[in-house]
Structure prediction request, 133 residues.
Amino acid sequence: QGEIENYPAPYENTTVWSKVKSLTTPTATGKDIAVGLFSSGYYCGAAEVNGGVCSENGDQILGEGDDLNNLLNNAPASYFGHVLEFTEAVTVPYMCSRNNNFSNRSQKGILWVVSPADAAAARRRKREIKTRK
Prediction:
């Protein structure tokens, strides 16, 4: 699975979740964040790692209660999500399954996260190239 695939990688085949933290829900683990995002907020977190991420107001925990409909028909219409901070440099292929027929309408991209020092060096190189022209 990767940037050329039209299908999302299973959670077990990804590494990005160990390299992010939630600024909106600091107690959320990487798996809690992934579960919330893949379910459009239907599940608040993963039961086996949940450490207070789910509130007392009836939030669903993965593996408990009603199952998520495979078409997301019982998922919320909107989802606040998480504000994420990457803890290290990483390349993240992503895809959106909305309006994606998995052949000629793929909606995917790549997010490159670099350190601030590397970003500054790249900007300097770009300015140097511009001034040489």
Notes: Helices lie at 30-38, 116-132.
